[in-house]
Amino acid sequence: MKSQKPNRYHYILGLVVILLFYSCYLIFFADKKNIDFIPRKLRHVITLGFTIAVYLAGITFLKKIGVVWMKTLWNIVYIFGLLIIALIGLYDWVFLTGQPNVKLSMFARAIQELLMSPILYIAIGLLYKSLLKPPKV
């Protein structure tokens, strides 16, 4: 059985890699004025690519840390997040012909933004740190 003491170096390295992916996405794609000139499907592929890159970076470094429940929580959140996004996209594609539902689209973007940002990785690290402290008597 592996030790439950995480390697701080791997955790910080994973955070830096996720921050680099997220920053590159924001700088080169999301915050560009000419983003409307990129075809919609290509934008979705780029966003999905960055989401998968962040997932792989997170799972790689969480695996190196060796705390099983952190990796499991990461997988569960990503699976459900991507499932929700896929179901919204399927609903939009099959049932809503014509103009897409703006509120539904914004909800899907918010979920994808959560999955790409380092917030989830930091939250898992903080959860581990809070569980590590002994209770106050």
UniProtKB/TrEMBL annotation:
Return the PROSITE patterns for the record: PROKAR_LIPOPROTEIN (PS51257)
Q: Where are the transmembrane segments?
A: 12-30, 42-62, 74-94, 106-128
From what superkingdom does this record's organism come? Bacteria
Protein's UniProt name: Uncharacterized protein
Tell me which UniProt keywords the record has, alphabetically: Membrane, Transmembrane, Transmembrane helix
